[in-house]
């Protein structure tokens, strides 16, 4: 799954997602440890993942990158829901379970946040995480995000409604860290 590096970190590189990566993406988003955390409750077949690739990854309204560590794909990170007038977008990410707790997600999020503020000229980045996803909440805290609010009972996961916590990071806050 080779591809050009778009953003480089100390331990991860972020590169464009290619068609050859569809199998990796489909396998991971069907893992319960991933689909629960991202609020996706239905299985994804290859054609649906290809649709995601063609519509979201290849679209002009998102920036979605593959996180690679030591030549191995470990997850995705990206920006979506852009509001160019307000200068904001939403950050999204996931890390394959066998690569959790290694700091790959934090480093990837930090690189994308820097890109968003330095290259895209955004003023604000938002993120949301389900109440049960403590590792993701810690990731956002480590990058400098502030919890701003709660959407109560926003998703039905594992037989019960889950709250989603909303986080925000302003450019001036990020530059002060």
Automatic annotation (TrEMBL):
Q: Which PROSITE patterns match?
A: GNAT (PS51186)
InterPro entries the record matches:
Acyl_CoA_acyltransferase, GNAT_dom, Ribosomal_N-acetyltransferase
A Pfam short name: Acetyltransf_3
Q: What class of enzyme is it?
A: transferase
Q: What is this protein called?
A: GNAT family N-acetyltransferase
Query: Could you cite one Gene Ontology molecular function of this protein?
Result: acyltransferase activity
Q: What is its EC number?
A: 2.3.-.-
Keywords from UniProt, A to Z, are:
Acyltransferase, Transferase
Q: Where is the N-acetyltransferase domain?
A: 12-172
């Amino acid at each position: 799954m080779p591809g050009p590096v778009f953003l480089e970190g100390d331990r991860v590189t972020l590169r464009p997602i290619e068609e050859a990566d569809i199998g990796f993406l489909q396998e991971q988003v069907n893992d319960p440890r991933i689909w629960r955390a991202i609020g996706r409750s239905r299985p994804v077949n290859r054609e649906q993942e290809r649709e995601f690739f063609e519509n979201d990854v290849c679209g002009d309204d998102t920036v979605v990158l593959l996180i690679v560590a030591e030549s191995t794909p470990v997850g995705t990170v990206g920006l979506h829901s852009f509001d160019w007038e307000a200068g904001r977008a939403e950050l999204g990410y996931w890390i394959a379970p066998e690569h959790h707790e290694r700091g790959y997600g934090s480093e990837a999020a930090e690189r994308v946040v820097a890109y968003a503020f330095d290259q895209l000229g955004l003023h604000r980045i938002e993120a949301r995480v389900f109440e049960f996803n403590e590792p993701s909440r810690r990731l956002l805290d480590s990058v400098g995000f502030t919890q701003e609010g709660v959407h109560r009972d926003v998703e039905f996961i594992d037989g019960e409604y889950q709250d989603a916590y909303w986080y925000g990071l302003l450019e001036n806050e990020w530059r002060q860290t």
